[in-house]
Amino acid sequence: MSIHTIEHHFTADILSLLKYRQKMLQLTEIPAVSTGKHMGFAWGPGDILVYETLYKAKGTCMDPLIRKDEDIYSPILRKLFNESHHIFVGLQTVGEDVPSKNKKPQFVSISKNYRSVIRACMEELQQLVSILLAIELIWNLCEVLFIDAAPAGSLLLHLLDWVRLHKADVDEKTREVLQSESPAEHHNYWDVVVSYVLQGRVEEARQMLVKQANLHPAARGMFKLMDKLLSKMPFYNPRSTQTLTEFDVIWRHWHEEVDRCLQDNSFSSNQHLEFICKILLGDEDSLLECKDLLGTWYHFLVTRLLFCHPTVKPTDLHYYAQSCMTMFLDSRSVSEPLDSILLASFEFDIHQVIKDCSIVLNNWWFVAHLTDLLDHCKLLQSHNLHFGSNLREFLLLEYASGLFTHHSLWQLAVDYFDHCPEFGRVYLELQIERVPLETERKALKVLRVCEERQMSEQVRSICKIMATRALRNNRLGSALSWSIRAKDAAFATLISERFLQDYSTRGTFSDLDLIDNLGPSMLLSNRLTFLGKYREFHRLYGQKHFSKAAKLLLSLMTAKIAPQSFWMTLLTDALPLLEQKEVISPHALSSCSKSAHQSLWDVLVVLSRRVQGETGQAAYAPPPSVELEYL
């Protein structure tokens, strides 16, 4: 479906803005409410916190249902969230030292980038189209009135572009007419011509009128006169040297010429041309006869300005907007939320626009990004909230908090928090702890975010959670890695003991790569140091570096960091070293009847003498009770 086809149905479908919102609201029954308990609640961007209080319930609850907005979880809007995130980050880099006059083109360009993302999403959608069209319609108008801040003269040109962009069904009709056998006799021919005139597209209207003139040679003079009027219709050119006053004089002369043609009954023999002539004069009754072609009151507004007040000032827009809405809408009809938002825009009431959009739209995306852009344009400086944060930061915090409830979009939210100077850090610290850590890959992503921002407390918390989970699943290597990253000495000690217990049971170490590359991390705890050095002893022994292995084992025995339950294992490891030379005291091998403690000291003496013999260093001095065994 093309974007033009979508927009053809926009007017009729705009009511789905609210219908879809009601459809997407998930209803959740709260049992405690129906039992008469007093409940407290706090709204969030994607959910609501409901809790029982100590107060007694007063009266009857009128609505025991909680509504939850689900837009944040819609895969259809994933592209919108992702693409707009890049634009947002780029906007934050616009230099503060750049003069405001030079920033304006950048801000307008950024606004158009936001709108292009919205329109790109429409191309891929079959639902939510009316909502996105309404969003783009509002954003485009805010861009014209607030960001670009077009002055009188240029203002009407921007409004015409705004209407043409959002009222493109005339192009569909034109294709249908031109593809017919006789375009001038097609039943939609005059609708196309009038629609072109209503949008100020006089060149297209002239081209269509040529076909009718060729079909009626006798009336060619009348068509030629209409072509002359259309060709002479003045449009303000902001790039020319012509002043607004000079343009106004030229326009009034043209307007008087059109009026003379009507008074002279120049088009009386052709009702269609006469009707077009009345439109060019801005006749209200004739314009209101085009309700079906105009479609909306704001199209009627722009057309009326085009033919009656082409030099309208921005400050006068609200008067004409209110007047046109009253004239166009049926007195019995109730204005839609979109009408109120557009009217507030024409009144230059930025905060009312933001407020109404916050109420009507399903999520915080629109108000957060628009407010951020307006704040950069210095249009919201005077509006601070009572609790300390300005409006921009408040809306960004709400939007980012909503993203954090999503399993993947939470990564986008981090950048939004980063650009909220007052409360962003606090919100990020609270939200990051709530991210479900389903996998180690996700945990590492969360950890990287915390480490980059020196969030040491959150780093320790995440590492402890992952270390505990890994230990519970008997994945000792992963558990030890996480505990080292958390710098948790107690937990590292516990895991190191589990490694030693497994070694005692199986005779081999698991996760050798990790243990072999502990480096300075082994100094985190005595038990971890022992684990790393004990593994190093095994590596030296396996490489037949017996002297180095003996010295390392000796240092492990004398450093008092080995668990007592591991002494016999050390004794067993030391025995092969004693057999490497002939000169060994027989008492070391006949000490089986001694306690493990005594035997360990015996072996220490022998190893000490062996080390002395090879290095010339003083031997280790054993306790007196052990020394007597060798006398």
From TrEMBL:
GO biological process, one term: positive regulation of DNA-templated transcription
GO CC list: nuclear membrane; nuclear pore outer ring
Subunit structure: Component of the nuclear pore complex (NPC).
Lineage: Eukaryota, Metazoa, Chordata, Craniata, Vertebrata
Family under the similarity heading: Belongs to the nucleoporin Nup85 family.
InterPro entries: Nucleoporin_Nup85
Subcellular location: Nucleus, Nuclear pore complex
Protein's UniProt keywords contain Membrane: yes
Function: Functions as a component of the nuclear pore complex (NPC).
Keyword Transmembrane helix: no
GO molecular function term, any single one: structural constituent of nuclear pore
Name recorded for this polypeptide: Nuclear pore complex protein Nup85
Keyword terms, alphabetized: Membrane, mRNA transport, Nuclear pore complex, Nucleus, Protein transport, Translocation, Transport
